[in-house]
C-alpha cells in the first residue's frame, strides 16, 4: 500500500502529500462529483490543456485560466475571436498552445450545440461505469477504460477536440465518475456515486 498517514491520522496516496497544493486538491476536489455544464466545461478544458504536461502545471495556472477564459462560461468562450486567440497566446500565465486554445473555443461551441440534445452533463454522465475500480495502490490505477473510450468517441462525434480516451479517463477521475482513491485512503467512497460494493448507485440516491 503506497499510502501515507498524515499528522491528522488520514491516509492518502503519496502524490497527494507531495505538495500543499496537491494535498488541498486531493482532500477537497479530486473525485468530487461535478454535474453542471459550466463546471464540466471548465474541467474538460483544463484536461485539454494538461495533455502532455503535469497536472501541477495546470493547478498552478488555474486561477489565471479562469480569469482569461471568463470563468469558463461556455457562451462567452464560444464567442472568442481571433483577437482573443492572440491575446491568450501572449499571456504567460496560461499554457500558450494555439491548438489547445482553439480547441477550447470550439469545445465551447460544441457544448452550446449539445443543449438541444440533453446537454454536456447528460452526455458525460451517461458513460458512468456500472462498477468503479478498487485500486490497492496508485500503480493499480488504469489510464483508460471502456467507458472513457466510448466517451471520447461520443464527444468527438459532437465536434469536441483533444478528448482522447486517456484525457477522458482523467476527467472521469476528477469529476467522480470513477473512484480511484486507493483502498484505505480516507477519501475512498466519499463521492456518493458508488455503494460499498463499488456498484454505481442511482444518480439521485446518496451513498450510506
From TrEMBL:
Q: Name one Pfam family in it.
A: Adenine_glyco
Query: Which keywords fit this entry according to its UniProt record?
Result: Metal-binding, Zinc
The record's annotation in Gene3D superfamilies points to: Hypothetical protein, domain 2
Q: In the record, what terms sit under GO molecular function?
A: DNA-3-methyladenine glycosylase activity; metal ion binding
Locate the region Disordered.
Answer: 188-208
One BP annotation, GO: base-excision repair
Task: Decide whether keyword NADP is in the record.
Answer: no
Q: Which domain of life is it from?
A: Bacteria
Q: What name does the UniProt record give this protein?
A: DNA-3-methyladenine glycosylase I
Q: Which organism is it from?
A: Brooklawnia propionicigenes
Upper lineage is: Bacteria, Bacillati, Actinomycetota, Actinomycetes, Propionibacteriales
Amino acid at each position: 500500500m503506497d499510502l501515507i498517514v498524515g499528522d491528522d491520522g488520514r491516509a492518502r496516496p503519496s502524490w497527494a502529500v507531495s505538495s500543499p497544493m496537491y494535498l488541498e486538491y486531493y482532500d477537497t476536489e479530486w473525485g468530487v462529483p461535478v454535474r453542471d455544464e459550466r463546471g464540466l466545461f471548465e474541467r474538460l478544458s483544463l484536461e485539454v490543456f494538461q495533455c502532455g504536461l503535469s497536472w501541477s502545471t495546470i493547478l498552478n495556472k488555474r486561477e489565471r485560466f479562469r480569469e482569461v477564459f471568463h470563468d469558463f462560461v461556455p457562451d462567452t468562450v464560444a464567442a472568442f475571436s481571433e483577437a482573443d486567440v492572440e491575446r491568450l497566446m501572449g499571456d504567460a500565465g496560461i499554457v500558450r498552445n494555439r491548438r489547445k486554445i482553439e480547441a477550447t473555443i470550439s469545445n465551447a461551441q460544441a457544448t452550446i450545440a449539445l443543449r438541444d440534445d440533453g446537454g454536456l452533463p447528460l452526455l458525460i454522465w451517461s458513460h458512468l461505469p456500472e462498477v468503479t475500480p478498487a485500486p490497492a495502490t496508485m500503480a493499480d490505477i488504469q489510464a483508460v477504460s471502456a467507458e472513457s473510450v466510448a466517451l471520447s468517441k461520443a464527444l468527438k462525434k459532437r465536434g469536441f477536440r483533444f478528448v482522447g480516451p486517456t484525457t477522458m479517463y482523467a476527467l472521469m477521475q476528477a469529476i467522480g465518475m470513477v473512484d480511484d482513491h486507493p483502498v484505505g485512503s480516507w477519501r475512498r467512497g466519499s463521492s456518493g456515486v458508488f455503494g460499498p460494493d463499488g456498484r454505481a448507485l442511482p444518480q439521485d440516491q446518496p451513498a450510506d
